[in-house]
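Morning F.,

Quick status update on the modeling queue. The single chain you submitted on Monday has been processed. Sequence for confirmation:
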Amino acid sequence: MPQLLKLIKKYLKTSQVTFTTTSSEFVDDPEGIQTFSLTKSQVVLIIYQENSIMRENASEIWQRKQSAINVDGVDVALTMDGSGTSGWYESGPWWHYSCLARNCSFWCGILGAGTHTIKGRVRKQQYTYAHIDNRNLLILIFDGDQAWYLDDATAQDLSGFTWVDDAYASFTITPPATSIALILYNTSEMVGGLNIGVGQCNLIRVGGVDSGFVGKSPIGSMGGCSVFNAYATQLPPNTITIKGRVRGEGPQNNNSQVSRRQMCVLLLDPAFHNLTTLTSSVQASTTSDSLIDDPQATVNISLPVDSEVIIIAVADKRNITEAEYGHRYGISIDGVDEAHGRSKPNGNAANSTAVIWAETLMAGTHTIKGRFSNNRPGKSDNARVDFRTLIIPSTPLPPPETYKLNISTTVGGTTEPVPGIYEFDAGTIVTPIAIAESGYLFDSWLLDGNVATDNPISVLMDRDHVLEASFVPIPPVYHSLTIISGAGGTTEPAPSIYTYLEGTAVTVVAVPDATYMFSKWILDGLEATENPITVTMDADHILEASFTLPTCPACPGCWPNCWWLLVLGLVVGGAGTYVLTREDKETKTKRKQI
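Structure tokens below.
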């Protein structure tokens, strides 16, 4: 069953880095390359818009170039543009700047699942150089199948100023339902065609309704030119014919030719797309060399949700409208200039330019403007726009896919965010933190059954996840207390090595032997005199008790051979009867209680 198109993804490669080639064979534009992957066959639209700027270097002023799109190694959608020859207009003041050339080519087709590489390509045709100073490569990927594309190189001669059907650019289609039709049409005259200076115009006819026309002249004879046009409208589900129409650009009844054309019709599903368009034929002019607002090209769009917004702008200066150096036309979004294209200098002959852009815009109201200026920085040349069209399809983005994260903990801690079930947009990276309670340590995470120890942990929300923080009690810490006793006493507890839980306060008493006195403690090399002593077990400790003999107050150094023992005994031993004895030759006082 036929299926209208729904935009799924976009890629935009934009650059203003200059690339120059002297090759007459197609070469890659290194700034216009995009690789992407598809998981299934899908409709792909590619638009490659490029232009050069004017140069005053006499060795570079003439330029004719051909552009193409390369799809997975195959060159397609060839277009041609040139700056003319040194014919009629060499006496004019502008021809010394005439190397500017521009093309806007497109391709549409079905690409299969896998990786694909799209390239912008360019080659010179005649003269020495081909330049690209500005380019936008836009790739749109759709679900659905309602797309038609042709690329035909059959020449069709044009005579004079009369509109005729392009015999090789038409589709007769029957939309399966009401749809938004986006139509692109490009005609090219290659070098050596019948064009002698007036160029060509084209328009798009849908049923009996014509789009606005645009045109361009190559300046000199047989110089080559391409004309890009775009149109969008809503179609009912009825059979209808869509065709390209062409004519010569000037009223001089000169001959021209369409050497090649591309046409593309895409039917977008209005259930997934909105369309805003603007068309005006009111002339605007400026002498500014910086982009200013085109007063006929302001569009305000209101987006109910975040949306992908595509912008295609075409601006045309009609034949016999004086503006020697052409114009630059750009797009601004909410006051920011996003992209521009350039038309070439061509005196009072026709010229047109096209510019494309794509951007994801947030929900709300946005202002999109066409902007224009002349082509030469620092100059006050006149630039005119006689016709412009802005085509703005938008695609509301679906609500982001969400996944759940279930956070829990074991005993001993919590998390930040706290344990619970949370929803996050797909692709979000969540970083929960485990927070241990007093007496506990964070041990590990269990993420979908897999152990991880990082804290915080990073969880990519690519599916539902279960996350548990595990905590363990802080293990008890023990320290050793080594107690040592010197000669003359002991301790309580007795000298030994003891183990205590960290933080324990241990009390140790020094007990001197008879006739000895406690002297001091040595705790980890530091002296202390209190007895008992209290040691806090915050580390391993070594405690030594030191004892000493009393000093005789009458005759220091005579102890214990001194009669003062009697006094000491009375004092120490208390009341009683004592027997004094003499031993050996010295008087030794000993006490004995009877």
